[in-house]
Amino acid sequence: MRPTGDDDPLRFYYMPVVGRLYRRRLEMAAAMLGTEPVACAVEVGYGSGILLPELARRSRRLVGVDRHEEAPAVLAMARAEGAHPLLVTGGICALPLATASVDLLVSLSLLEHVRALDEAAAEIARVLRPGGRAVLGYPRVDRLMEMLFPLIGFHGIEQHHVSTPADIERALAARLALDQCRRWPRGPLPLYTVSSWRLVS
Fold it and tell me: What percent of the chain has pLDDT above 90?
């Protein structure tokens, strides 16, 4: 695997302490995907493609949506792992997907970058089939994180993380029903949240 750009967090997965958090978010999301394969799964913000092989095992058709231009490299990696996703260009506020066409939508560490959360939530709801689920992950966004990110070599996080978990969950709750929500680590200062939402018909 290789990074898709300067803002690709791939290197963080392999750091001694920070890597635990980055890998933990994948584990938390995987635990919410369900055991039965779905007809169509979509990952929005697939990045370097680290989650695509797992999603391919849980769906009969897999689509990846991202803004970067490294789809050929990511597709080659995915195929080497036995996954054959369709990778398309787009963003979460204007998904290049048909209405009511998706059974499972997954997006990790994307919504905290989005100011237009109502638009993003509306798009998620639009593409999900009735009963379809969205598994979404996002970090805490506050002064604590602004102090922690420079310690791992990421400066200016306040320019990238603009929406808090409360903002994100408020926007989603207007369109979807919350199934479950897990925060890690447990306690008063969780660093990351993964939540599962369902489109109620």
Answer: 73
